[in-house]
Amino acid sequence: MTAGMPDPASGYCYRHPDRPSYVLCQRCGRTICPECQTPAAVGVICPDDMRAQRQEARQQRPPLSRRVSRLAASGTPVVTYTIIAVTVVVWLLQLLPGVGDTVTGSLAFNPVFLLPANGFYEPWRAVTALFVHSPNSVLHVLFNMFSLYIFGRILEPMLGRWRFLALYLLSGVGGSIAVLLLAGGSVVGASGAIFGLMGALFVFGRQLGGNVRSLLIIIVLNLASGFFLPAISWQAHVGGLAVGLLVAAIVLQTRAERQRGRQIGSLVALGIVLIGLGTAVAPILV
Q: Which of the residues are catalytic?
């Protein structure tokens, strides 16, 4: 033993030589008083070994990229949760004084943004409108995100993340274009995309031989509510539902691995057609 160093099992704490104790660190065997003891799986650990153990754990922890990869490979509906998180953050920003109006005005969809001649042609608003909701009603964003949570957890593992994202975005664009064709005016909210998810789930359920009667009732009731409640855009619901049915049909017809390129091309073409239709029709209707 080195001169001047306390005996590890001398009966006195190695950090507080004036404090008697007969409890030993389970890793190094040194005597430690109650103040220096950290409970472990078996026995207790001294402060020095506790720091060393935490350092070892940090060094063994996988980097962020690897943890994200593990999460993605686990079947967790990452896209669904990400869309919910982004939408909620945007809605909270909409509530901020002096900022909210700018956020809403920068992301909302209006047919005038599909007029190439107006000097600020912004077709991407047909997508960004899905992430903004009415700042005057928490029920608007709450109902849409709860519906996304329910249907996303079913559809995302079934379709895969990128197909599910395409379904959600294309259905939302379909809702925006339907507002242009059938009503005009500004629109915000993910309702069109949610109806697209319901329509796709109906198609897949029928294909798998499941009982889709209850889902059909939900779709009909929600569609009907849009005709009686003035704050709800039934046009977006109809457009989103129609595109959701179409996306589901494309996925079913091109589900073979050898048809992957055809599937991607068809979905991209659908998005181009929707925006192109809106751009062509906007000068006539607006």
A: 191, 237
